[in-house]
Amino acid sequence: MKEHNDEVPQAMRIRQEIQESMNNSLPEKKFRKENIDVVEVDIELNNLGWDFHNYRILNLTDIHLGQWVTPEYLDELIDYVNTLNYDVATLTGDYISYIIDGYEDCLKDSFKKLKSNDGKFGVLGNHDHWMGADIIREIFRASDITDLSNDVCVLSKGESKLNLAGVDSCTVCADNLDEVLAKLDDDSPTVLLVHEPDFAKESSQTGKIDLEISGHSHGGQFVIPKLETTPFRGPNSTKYPVGHYKIDGMHQYTSKGLGTNSFRIRINCKPEITIITLKNGNKKRIKIE
To answer: Torsions phi, psi of 29, nearest 5?
Structure first.
């Protein structure tokens, strides 16, 4: 047990002690690919340039390292991710849970190992802010991950461009969508990374975001069979808790995430690695005479 820090609120200290206790009860600490869903999602965008047709975005979210997910598990998971076919890697927050001391180096080493042809991009979640946003941002820098918190990176392929943007966690009121909108290339489609899925209520109203990718909900850790939704919804994930939605013309996707908060149990809700394939929605008709 780590020594108590008197500056940590008692409620947080209790959560930390519960986390350590749960970790000590883990029956299995190894990564097994059969216990993970690799979810493939096709998203059609009418304004997508043909050079980005079939462009594949890998998303990892809600690792919650240190709570059920061990450093060894994460290291093996990244080895598996590196065997998958994708063009760019995105990360949408909550990389740790209630303890960050002792996990910084292993998180950095795993993120360094993550491969991506067109770069690695991420935003922060509420847990990252609670435990130390500056530490997570330094891990990003050391791992060659571009921090897209309230920022935009324009990707180019041939004559086509794609805005890859991000918004910081709205749970802690760190989001600044106006700053993001001011940086967009208005002639290009936009993919927005944001930890909390219900931010879609705001981003969809701008008319400038084509796809939002989120996590945060863990899929409720229970997905109702056939209905593919969950009755368990927390703050900022009540409207769009799991899967693909269409909101005022904007696509929104919520991943079930890799880790869990509090209870380890998942029912019909495996941990998820997401690969989103962008498609040009402007289909051409060929006249046959």
So the answer is: -115, 5
